[in-house]
Amino acid sequence: MSEWKPKFSTTLVEPNCRASITPTGDVEIELLDVDKKNIGTEVDPIQLSIFSHRFMSIAEQMGTVLQRSSISTNIKERLDFSCALFGPDGGLVANAPHIPVHLGGMQASVKFQIEHLKNEGGFKRGTVILSNHPKAGGSHLPDLTVITPVFFDDSEKPDFFVANRGHHADIGGLVPGSMPPHSTSLDQEGAAFISFKIVEGGDLQEEALTEALKEPGKVPGCTGTRNLRDNLADLNAQIAANQKGITLLKELVESYSMPVVKAYMEHIQENAEHAVRELLKKVGEEMHQRGKSHLKAEDRMDDGTVIKLRVEIEEVSGWSRDLNYLLFIPNFSQMRCSTSPEQAFKCTPAATHLPQCSGRRLSTVFDAWSGEISH
């Protein structure tokens, strides 16, 4: 029988820190007088990494709250949701690695609400917005996005935004699941929200929300939501997840100050743009070496719709020098789109611009789906 030998480990206690052993045997390290005044707004590589992880940690903790608070299989077990932080202009800062397809969509949703609510004086304290409409940055309707502005002290405009997007199993429409393959209008796909104040003045608008979720039942052949209990519970969980993000953001600002936090949000966005631009330069160089002048692809949707894409990359600047694509949409005219470097999609999670398409906006496609062709 071998002799038992105790196991040891070494724990480093940094200056201005105090370590103590808890009753359970854990080592608890307390930060004492840590001076953060020397952290300025100028970019520092080490601080950039620290803030990047801090912002990502906030988004991930929002996701933990959402998962634990929800009751539906889609969100609690299948984890079909995403949480993110946004700057004062609605630019994406950190998106936890939950569902990649939500990465760019939520930024479009936040930016849409900022512009949409201008006529009402902008976001108000105690207001939470619910949105899922394709014109408002939505994907398919069952993905419900909850957006909460973050106000500090006496700020008249939001200093930040937190948002999350969760897939609800049913929100009404032609078929269970709210994703009918044979729908001919957006109304047949379930409840649609462009800018619904799910919380106003700090109060949950449950009665109005319930009414809106039952609204699809007025469309011929459709019903309202088939699982109202899960909808309401999960939306409450989404609101709670955003509140967790707000609490953590406020702690971060108290530790580093508002100017520093905002500055590093911008530094992270600029760093992301630089990284993507360098990647595109590398792709452009490889294309040039292989004697290619552009990238192209063609694919078809389930109904036979053809999507063609052609991209030219400027290897010196990293811009997409020319973006051409054809959309062959049943019952609609063919659209050819071309952009200059200035109009091309900006290579950064902070800003995405839709190019003009021969005088017609890309959102025409979204308008067409909802039966509101205006271009």
Structure description:
32% of the residues lie in helices and 21% in strands. It is of the alpha+beta class. It contains 7 helices and 15 strands. The chain has helices at residues 45-69, 73-76, 102-116, 206-214, 228-256, 258-289, 363-369; strands at residues 17-21, 27-31, 81-86, 92-95, 128-131, 143-150, 160-167, 196-200, 203-204, 295-300, 306-313, 320-328, 335-337, 356-357, 360-361. α1 (45-69) packs antiparallel against α5 and α5 (228-256) packs across α6. The radius of gyration is 24 Å and the shape is globular.
List keywords for this structure.
15 strands; seven-stranded antiparallel β-sheet; 32% helix; 375 residues; 7 helices; disordered C terminus
Helical residue percent?
Answer: 25-40%
- Individual helix count: 7
Q: Between the first and last Cα atoms, what is the distance in angstroms?
A: 85 Å
The radius of gyration is 24 Å
What structural class do the secondary elements suggest? alpha+beta
Mean pLDDT: 83
The major beta sheet can be summarized as:
7 strands, antiparallel
Percent range for β-strand residues? 15-25%
Number of domains: 2
Short description:
The protein has 375 residues and is of the alpha+beta class. 32% of the residues lie in helices and 21% in strands.
How does the SSE layout of this entry go?
Layout: E1 17-21, E2 27-31, H1 45-69, H2 73-76, E3 81-86, E4 92-95, H3 102-116, E5 128-131, E6 143-150, E7 160-167, E8 196-200, E9 203-204, H4 206-214, H5 228-256, H6 258-289, E10 295-300, E11 306-313, E12 320-328, E13 335-337, E14 356-357, E15 360-361, H7 363-369
Antiparallel strand pairs: 1-2, 3-4, 3-7, 5-6, 5-8, 6-7, 8-9, 10-11, 11-12, 12-13, 14-15
Helix pairs in contact: 1-5, 1-6, 5-6
